[in-house]
Amino acid sequence: MHKSRALLAAAISAMLALLVFGITSVARADTLFSDNFEDGNSTGWTSSGGSWAVASDGSQVYRQSGTSSDARSRSGSSSWSNYAVQARVKPTAFNGSNRFVALLARAQSNTSYYYLALRSNNTVELKKLVSGSSTTLGSRAQTVTLNTWYTLKLDVSGSTLRGYVDGTLVATATDTQFAAGNIGLATFNASASFDDVDVSTGTTTPPTGSPTASPTNSPPGPSPTPCTTCQFADGFASVNAMGQNGTRGGLGGPVVDVSTASAFLAQIAMLGPRIIRVNGTIALPGPMHDVTSDKTIVGMGANSGFTGGGLNIGLPIDDGITSPPANAVKNIIIRNLNFNSWPDDAINVQMFSHHVWIDHNHWGTGTDGGVDIKRGSSYVTVSWNHADGTNKNMLLGRDDGDSAQDSGRLKVTYHHNWFDATTQRNPRVRFGDPVHVYNNYYNDTGNYGVASTMNAGVLVERNYFENVDDPFHLGEASSPAGRLVAVDNCLVNSGPGQSGGSVAPIPYAYTVTAACSVKTAVLAWVGTGRVGIPGAEPS
């Protein structure tokens, strides 16, 4: 352990170890090391080359300011073997072409280690350095912009190496050169700031999206009882990306109770974090109402929620914006709420909103979608919800013409939802890759289950389809086919489905239920009345 953050990280790790079901995507882990440099020193780090010092960059960071040589700074134990090291990295200058900033693992010395490098030629590379001689093990195109923070993660487990940028798996390799070693930070003819260095053990290997993939953490038979009081998102909503570390909603803000439309609308418009507890059914004026960043909206008991109006998570529509604006809405949790008779959408996520967790809700019928996610939004998890007879249930990607906003985004997880006699869009997907649809229960679907269109990549994994003629297919209406990988689904009195193509790897760890046990697991815990209430119960 190292530095002040180690104690906090250990406490969080201990809490997560208690969650034995898939309500959290973070696999059980032990924290070996943590340093955020807020103590103002670099005690425990040994540097070679460059000019290393703790400096201020919004918070305290570890800065290497020279640009004329190799520079390394290492810490930790030479006996560390299987672990993941993660750090935030901001390149500030490149002195020439093909320069880089990097994160090191299993370092034997300053000239022998594995490393994940962001290069000035807009690539990310997974490499090894052996006595000063480098070998590229994997690479991928990656925009690298000066003075921009990136979260790098290098996972070394046995002979398997994985590199991540902002929560996305970018390179994998198999290599046996180094079995153990410490961690480090590096620059090559470049300057950079480093922060929030964490080392943990016990990571879990997610599947790659191959049709023959089988997650190593798939338990046989019925799953154990899920956590009913946890407040932290899993799936894509848990991924550190876009400057947001997971989804915490209003955690840390005031807890307020509302029972009228005027009180509720005033609270969701407030700036800053807050936990808003909805008491009873509130009649909202239509159609939808804007929710500002850093909010948890949670129903008290099993019968609270809204009728006559829905929630909008996102800025006003602007087709001219093609990259996330700085003021995009983010960090929203919506839990334990009933939605009925909405005149537009029950929940709408749009305009590059990110890190949204929609969990343990119930919605019936309304004019349009139950949960629509569109216009560049990403890092969303939709889990443990009961969609009850909804027609246009879940749209992911609004229009075939939205490529400029949607391509490379729309990263969404749908798990343990009950699609109960819904008609279509469960979900209907454009552009997003990967989109992860796993452990959901579908029954008596009217039209189709999952549709992949417009070059989307959808992993449909271990779901239970009952009385569903068309569980999943490629293309829909005038939208051309996307890609869809189907893995070990349980088909009861249902059609075979249509699949084809490949899907990008899933970048987070998760626990799956055996497909033919999904119905039992979902029906036992889906919908409202199953979760703890923030501010009312410990979590």
Present the secondary structure layout.
Elements: H1 5-17, E1 30-35, E2 46-48, E3 52-57, E4 59-64, E5 70-75, E6 83-94, E7 100-109, E8 112-119, E9 123-130, E10 133-141, E11 150-157, E12 160-165, E13 168-174, E14 182-188, E15 190-201, E16 240-241, E17 244-245, E18 255-258, H2 261-269, E19 274-278, E20 281-283, E21 288-290, E22 295-299, E23 305-307, E24 310-313, E25 330-335, E26 338-340, E27 347-349, E28 354-359, E29 362-363, E30 371-373, E31 378-383, E32 386-388, E33 394-396, H3 403-406, E34 412-415, E35 418-420, E36 428-430, E37 435-438, E38 441-443, E39 450-453, E40 457-461, E41 464-466, E42 472-474, E43 483-487, E44 490-492, H4 518-525
Parallel strand pairs: 18-19, 19-22, 20-23, 21-24, 22-25, 23-26, 24-27, 25-28, 26-29, 27-30, 28-31, 29-32, 30-33, 31-34, 32-35, 33-36, 34-37, 35-38, 36-39, 37-40, 38-41, 39-42, 40-43, 41-44
Antiparallel strand pairs: 1-15, 2-5, 3-4, 4-15, 5-14, 6-11, 6-15, 7-8, 7-14, 8-9, 9-10, 11-12, 12-13, 16-17
Describe what this molecule looks like in 3D:
The longest helix is centred in the N-terminal third of the chain and has 13 residues, at 5-17. This protein has a 10-stranded parallel sheet, with helices on one face. It has a 9-stranded parallel sheet with strand order 20-23-26-29-32-35-38-41-44, with helices on one face. Strands 1, 3, 4, 6, 11, 12, 13 and 15 form an 8-stranded antiparallel sheet that branches. The chain is mainly beta. The protein folds into 2 domains: 5-201, Exo-inulinase, domain 1 (Jelly Rolls, Sandwich); 235-316 and 331-525, Pectate Lyase C-like. Helix content is 6%, strand content 41%. Residues 4-29 and 202-230 have low confidence and may be disordered. It is built from 4 helices and 44 strands. Residues 1-29 form the signal peptide. It comes from Rhizocola hellebori. Residues 199-228 are annotated as: Disordered.
